[in-house]
Specification:
The protein is of the alpha/beta class. Helices cover about 30% and strands about 20% of the residues. Bound molecules: zinc ion. Zinc ion (ZN) binds near residues 24 and 79.
């Protein structure tokens, strides 16, 4: 496995591909894309949504290696499709009523209300609007079907 100093000097072509995807263990891109260790930096959170924390990670990664492409991948049967933010708020408030006020305005970026394709379109739009998007970096959005392993393109890469 290359050291980070080696990666800075590696010929990465137009740069690394960064994957933004869900934390769901059924949807591990290293498995369904057959990635080699160290091949694609991967940012994962519940739902694979583009949150402020995703930009924090992208900023750090892009400061240490050239970035050629951002690939957003959501997946079928995602938990984010089955709950609304109000559902999450209710569950947490019921469990810990003493912290109810602290989460009254919080969002978990669930996407039951907008659906799979719209969540991908919205998140790709956020990535394309990132103020530090490296010049020439493409952005694309896909859905992985966890039953068939097939990727479906929702937003074409903008090379
Ligand atoms: Zn998921």
């Amino acid at each position: 496995m290359p050291h980070i100093d080696d990666m800075k000097n590696m010929d990465l072509g137009s740069g690394v591909t960064i994957i933004i995807t869900c934390a769901d263990p059924r949807a591990n891109p290293a498995t369904y894309l057959g990635l080699n260790p160290g091949e694609c930096p991967t940012i994962r959170n519940a739902g694979g949504r583009v949150t402020p924390e995703v930009f924090t990670s992208l900023e750090l990664i892009s400061a240490v290696m050239p970035v050629g492409m951002l690939v957003l991948i959501h997946h079928t049967d995602c938990g984010g499709l089955y709950v609304t933010d109000d559902d999450v708020r209710s569950a947490l408030s019921e469990r810990n009523p003493e912290h109810k006020d602290g989460i009254k305005d919080k969002t978990w970026h669930s996407y039951k209300n907008i659906g799979m394709d719209q969540s991908i379109k919205d998140d790709v739009a956020k990535l394309k609007a990132w103020k530090f998007l490296p010049k020439g970096a493409a952005v694309a959005g896909y859905v992985i079907d966890i039953k068939t392993g097939q990727l479906r393109n929702v937003v074409e890469p903008n090379f």
